[in-house]
Amino acid sequence: MKGAPELGDLPRKSEQVSEGEHNALAAIAYRMANQILKDHSEAMDVASETMITLIARFEPPSNSESYVTTVARNLAKNKQRGLNRQRRRMLRWAEGEA
């Protein structure tokens, strides 16, 4: 998939997931984030953050795909809200300056 993260782009804890599973999970995280954010760079950030969250777990989740989907969706929504707040602040600032 064009634009989806590759293994070298995102961290992997070899004891938790295989290389193939890692790539598949990173692609799922990227697609979910990109669907919400519609921005390649921001989606890559969310995918990276999602994979770091997965790796940082003491024990792997029982359903890694579901876990990655949920974390990526929540992080992307949080990022979108932050971007929307920033956009509104910039608009208010610009209106005040005009």
Oligomer kind: single chain
> What's the alpha carbon Rg, rounded to whole Å?
16 Å
DSSP strand content:
under 5%
Shape: elongated
Query: What structural class should be given to the helix and strand makeup?
Result: mainly alpha
Head-to-tail CA distance between termini: 44 Å
Helix content: over 70%
Order of helices and strands: HHH
Discrete helix count: 3
* Major sheet size, sense and barrel closure: none
Overall mean pLDDT score? 88
Count of extended strands: 0
Outline:
By secondary structure, the chain is mostly helical. The chain is 71% helix and 0% strand.
Can you characterise this structure?
The protein is mostly helical and 98 residues long. Helix content is 71%, strand content 0%. Helix 1 crosses helix 2, helix 1 (19-37) runs parallel beside helix 3 (64-97) and helix 2 packs across helix 3 (64-97). The N and C termini lie far apart (44 Å).
Using brief descriptors, characterize the structure shown:
single chain, 98 residues, mainly alpha
What is the secondary structure topology, with strand pairs?
Elements (H helix, E strand, L loop, with lengths): L18 H19 L2 H17 L7 H34 L1
Helix pairs in contact: 1-2, 1-3, 2-3
